[in-house]
Amino acid sequence: MSLHTLSYVGFNATDLDDWRQYATGVLGMQVVDQTADTLRLRMDEKHHRFAIHKSATPGFAYSGWDVATRAELDRLTTELTALGYPAVEGTEAERTFRKVVDLRVFTDPGGNRVELFYGQLSGCPFTPARQFGGFKTGQLGLGHIVFMTRNMDAMMAFYGVLGLSVSDYIFIKPVQSRACFMHLNARHHSFALLGGPQDVFHHIMIEANSLDDVGMANELALRQGRTVTMSLGKHTNDEVVSFYTMTPSGFELEYGCGGRTIDNEEDWQVVEYDDISFWGHLGPLRAPV
């Protein structure tokens, strides 16, 4: 595999203080620092996993993927450039802010900023903002991200070059569309695509270490007045028990636990499911009635 982990993400938001309250009070993240323009959040021993940028237009900003070495960064740069996706060197300010040794920026077929890097600052102490058992990260990365796309084939080809492989599919009946789930390490999927009428970021998932942590986050979200977009439920393909809330940036965040892993690539079989969940996750994709 070419990539190793999905290691950081950047989002835009109009209200950094609202993000801070949500990330600490509901999600349990640690604030690394906050300025008038940025908010960085820690989930584990990496310097930060989330960076929130002040902007008049909220939403997705970028994803950061760890390629482990300079040689791998050079190889992927050559392959992507040959396919028509040239690299832009990250600036010194960008490398410093992201706490990485080297950084190159690409644009995927959906127009999304993709950052490949190596040398992320690690070994930082993690102090959760509230009492809970921490996040499941490490060699699995920070979680997964999902995009809706009008260009399924082109997007799959781009991320395939980066080393992501198909885990499985779900045909989502309410929207009559197929979703493709892709992995690059033992996490069932670090990346997924949903065919649709526009190119837009759909959601991010982070994984806690216990069901109690998920249940507490669900309660805290309700106590904060956050919009729960999908109720507690269990997904069919990755078997995660989770719920979804609307973030201050206007996209959904899935908070779950118990995800299955792909421990033996040779024995893994790609299948398709016809429902997103065994139970629960009531909302737009699984109507309550």
From TrEMBL:
Its cofactor is Fe(2+). The keyword rRNA-binding does not apply. InterPro entries: Glyas_Bleomycin-R_OHBP_Dase, Glyas_Fos-R_dOase_dom, VOC_core, Xdiol_ring_cleave_dOase_1/2. One of its GO terms (molecular function) is dioxygenase activity. Keywords: Aromatic hydrocarbons catabolism, Dioxygenase, Iron, Metal-binding, Oxidoreductase. Residues 5-119, 141-258 form the VOC domain. CDD domains: BphC1-RGP6_C_like, BphC1-RGP6_N_like. SUPFAM superfamilies: Glyoxalase/Bleomycin resistance protein/Dihydroxybiphenyl dioxygenase. Belongs to the extradiol ring-cleavage dioxygenase family. This is 2,3-dihydroxybiphenyl dioxygenase. The gene is edoO1.
